[in-house]
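I am writing to request your help with a piece of structural work I have in hand. A protein sequence and the structure tokens that stand for its backbone fold form the material at issue. Please examine both parts with care and let me know of anything in them that strikes you as inconsistent. The record follows directly beneath this note.
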Amino acid sequence: MRIQRTLPPAAAPITINDIFNGIKGLRRGQAEIENFKADIRKKFRVRHCFFVSSGKAALTLILHALHRFSPDRDEVLIPAFTCFSVPSAIVRAGLKGRLSDVDPATLDFDFRAFRNALNPKEKLLAVVSPHLFGLPANIDKLQDLLNDSGVAVIEDAAQAMGEELGGKPLGTLGDIGFFSLGRGKAFSTVEGGVIVTNSDQLADALQPVIQKLVGQSRGRPLKIAAYALALSALTKPSLFWLPKSVSGLKLGETIYDPHFPIHPYSPFQAGLARNWQKRLAAFQAARRESVLHWIKILADYPWLKPVCLENDYIKDPIPLIRLPVRVQNSRLRDAMLDISKRRGLGIMPSYPTPVGEIKELGLVNNGQFPGARQCADDLVTFPVHGFVSPGDRRRIVAGLEAVQA
């Protein structure tokens, strides 16, 4: 166990004051949740909003609602490189995954491959389009290719809460979208998922499903409060070495698990979210500045290429939750990850494999996905959250110099 300043790869800080607000929310009960819902509807300009226990729970319930309208369609098209929570939710909903390759230069769908992956459309229920690490996916192009085929567009904005593209909030560009409020996302209430839509039909289908969710045990808010307290202290770089050194916590690991629980959202968590718009804006400002900093610095390292520079339809700096960077070759990537681990720099690999290589996952049209393979082999992510100090930036640059030498 090595005691040293260690950067978490992503962070959305929770303070002691936030925890006190959570306790106040617990005392206010359902009214606290309704206030949070009203804020979400106003901020994101949507008619309907629902809270559940996680982002993958939100996706599962969305798929249940869609399947009610189209019971003969049971396949969901997703990128071949994405968070393992997405295929977990598909299996949890009793549906089948279908894959399409991704473009390593954008982390979005490879739209040439996407055209072929759409067929046959008769069994296709929905397309899930993730805004990976907060990078906006090209929803307009996706919808054009679908061409009103009856296939729903689900926006996976789990990592992009509060971002906009062309003046429109991410998560509201498709038929329905969701955010995650889990640890390390754009904004956190320890755990939680938010569903947003302007579709009255989908909202009517979701309402009874969510109302039937089994309530949380009395002890669960206490567990979440204890977790919030631990996050408040241990996410700080001065102490993050401690949970990072405990292998049983599996921090940074990507796990496929379709057996996750689905719970209602609690008033304590809604209380944690008080003043969320002001806090989210502050987090975003810090991330945006850090993204700009690294784009400028990494220009001096030709073997590193930030992905956001290659999304030509993205015009403004983005408050990413992590900065994805392509590394020229595996030797340099391995050396950088080794130095980051030893020095606590917070540079981490992305998802370990393409989705198609998850052995437990039964897939439709499982084929070759070279773009997804390249993403798994080439990508690392740089920390851009507010805990990254000027001294940390100098340490990271020193690490890059060591690799380059």
